[in-house]
Amino acid sequence: MTQYHFRLAIRPVLVAALAGATVLTAACSDPDANLATAPAALPAKSLGVSLQVSSLDAPVGQRVAVAVVAQGAVLGGLQGRLNYDASALRYVGQDPSGQIVSMVSDVKQTAGHLTVVSMDVRAKGLPERTAVLNFEVLAPNYGAKLGYQFAKAGNPANDVQYRRAQWQGVVVGTQLAASETAKIMTDAEIARTVDATLAAAGKKPMAVPGALIQGTQYGDCNLDGGAPDVFDVLCTQRVAADLDQMISGTNVTVRDAVIAANVFPANLPGAGEIGDAVPPGLESGTASKIDDRVLDVFDALDIANDAAGNNRTIPGTVIPGREASQFGRPVVSVSCPISSSVTWTRGNIYRIQKPANPLTQVCNVGDNNGSGPTTVLTIEAGTRIEADSNTIVIGRNAQIQAIGTLSDPIVFTCGGSQATPTTGCWGGLYIDGNAPINNGTLTSPAITGRQGGGAKEAIGEGNSGSYGGDNPNDNSGTLRFVVIEYSGTRFSATNERNTLTLQGVGAGTSIDYVMLDNGLDDGIEWFGGTVNVRHAFVNATQDDGFDWVGGWRGKLQFGIVRGCTPLCDRGIEADNFGIDGLGQDPESSPRSSPTVYNVTLVGDVTPSLMGQNNQAIEVRQNTAAMIRNFLAFNWKAGLDIDSTGIPSGQPAEPTGLICKLLGGAGNGQSPIGNDSLSIRNGYFAGNVADGDADVNDPRNLAGSGAFLYNCGGYGHNGSDLEAQYIAVASNFLTPVAGTATTHLVDPFGAVPDFRVKPSSPINGVVCATPPSDGFFDVTATYCGAMPYQTSGGGGIPWYSGWTKPR
Description:
Layout: H1 3-9, E1 34-35, E2 48-53, E3 63-71, E4 77-83, E5 89-93, E6 102-104, E7 113-119, E8 129-137, E9 147-154, E10 161-162, E11 166-174, H2 187-200, H3 230-240, H4 297-307, E12 331-334, E13 342-344, E14 349-352, E15 363-365, E16 375-379, E17 384-387, E18 392-394, E19 398-403, E20 410-414, E21 429-432, E22 458-459, E23 466-467, E24 477-485, E25 489-492, E26 495-497, E27 500-503, E28 510-517, E29 524-527, E30 532-539, E31 546-549, E32 555-562, E33 572-574, E34 595-602, E35 615-619, E36 625-633, E37 637-641, H5 656-662, E38 677-685, E39 689-691, H6 721-727, E40 733-735, H7 740-743, E41 744-746, E42 753-756
Parallel strand pairs: 2-11, 12-14, 13-16, 14-17, 15-18, 16-19, 17-20, 18-21, 19-24, 20-24, 21-27, 24-28, 27-29, 28-30, 29-31, 30-32, 31-33, 32-34, 33-35, 34-36, 35-37, 36-38, 37-39, 38-40
Antiparallel strand pairs: 1-11, 2-3, 3-8, 4-7, 4-9, 5-8, 6-7, 9-10, 22-23, 25-26, 41-42
Helix pairs in contact: 3-4, 5-6
């Protein structure tokens, strides 16, 4: 039987599956659902849910049936969670010989809850008994804790969605009997059955969610290359019911639940192409962010309707970026410098020519001296830019407008003589701006339309141009849905090119949804400026993930750093003026003072094998900062607060920055000027040490290795001051047992999932509320870079589907 014929055969009745059960077609008739006790009358156009039980006084060892009942509406799909007392009931499955319409989450017999997804798109819809589950009685009074947590439901005929339902209690149901043949097949058993069918249908492999496979349509969850069908419904249901992981796991290579299956809401008129402000799948229906994507019963219902002939607009539409025109594009050679405004379109690949000397020459866009008209480099969504051993520098009087989309990001990589991507095969993307910095000389040019000149300016590393000025709101353009990979150059230990370098960039610049992958140096480095960044994912960069210096006073929210062994360094490295210990003035103004919320910092599977400079967070050189709502897992050290640095000609300040935080006023030391450094609301797990004992800091050591000074009552004699800072209750810094894999879904997978597991004690914890200043998302009161994972559907992580690997 071919897949096409099978789809037609079930057109009147969609199939469904239960956890680990063979796929069966539904029976032709619906069982009646007779309530023993009449429920309360429902208001007009409302949905009521209840539980029926075959018996409330069955003896221990006997089976009972529990039915999820929905009344008041014809439903095509229903999703919710059945709660029960795991010490009194043991789930034994559904009857494989009956009408199978429900999928049930993996059974953890001590959990006491099951996520249940039921679906049927016949005109009659689901029966009132939308699911019948069987349990073995373990103890009397098993009905006391039975309950149902409604999630959502949908109507197949008129697209009505129900977000609320009236709870009508637990009753004994007549003509409801337990099944002695009910069973739970393993997930592997159903996977083998489904995979064999898909293989016979000629399924195609994918790389990861969001893979660019020509012709892929919305709704094609299993990526077999055809129009949406019953297998795609099954694929979507399994993820919605927590049977398959959303973006990781062993079967991720034959599934795309993140882009292809996320079809609801449609958010018409577009399908996520250029110019469509609100792509499919955004629950909020707004263009502001993609953080609210959810894969649930509504997505499965839309795909099911389309497969059953009830055509939907989004399922069956080719996903942007997968059109035939996007494959085999011509290469356009780009000469440098770029001195006039230009637009690069997605129909081409733009290759920047190799310079005669890649170490000294770069590809300048516009100029750095503040004269002439603004040069704008505009890059369409889906465009690929290849730099042949070159470095792109957006000048101080230029802009870049690189605006990708969720399904069609912009990619910067290497090409030409560097056709095989390797770390450091090109120099990265630099943006120079006119915002204030705290180093350099008072020689910045005057810019037309603003006051004066004569602010500090400096020359960037690696011949990357002049930057800095007196305009904190300077606008260097937009980066949105941009991937920058395999870049970086090292000239010396203190002169390097990064993946994305922001030099004196102002707050008028917009940077949101960027991935920095496999760089030779830092992922993002801020050299002063005031630019804000949201949704940044740094993966396997061979220095620090986030690095600031030179007076950066911007904001960062939703950041991820994943390290590597043995080359990757810190998650966050923070300085004020320069590198600690090189005689640079740590009191230089304006002091680095960013505000950072919601970051996830993951080191490596074996942190003990990482290099020496492998702290999740290192702050030093008298930087100020507010760091909140973070996770620091699997590093050599979770937190390291180093010396303030010693200005030339001044006596050593023996106790350093950590001492100030711990109460250095008792030593006559003052706080850090008018700024502050505070690191609070975070969790540590899997680190070799949560705090760094600073045993290598010569400013804190006597010749014997003992600390010389008392720090506001905190003794130095070999003690770990960072650990003492972590232990201060008001800092809300919490070490927890286990490692990154204990608490996160799949942090080290080829396709990682950094969400906090439902089983982690971190899940559900309310952390700090971000500032209400128009930039921060104040609803992100969780620790880490994304909402915690929930049972029964759950949100799609913001980085999934557009970042690498794709």
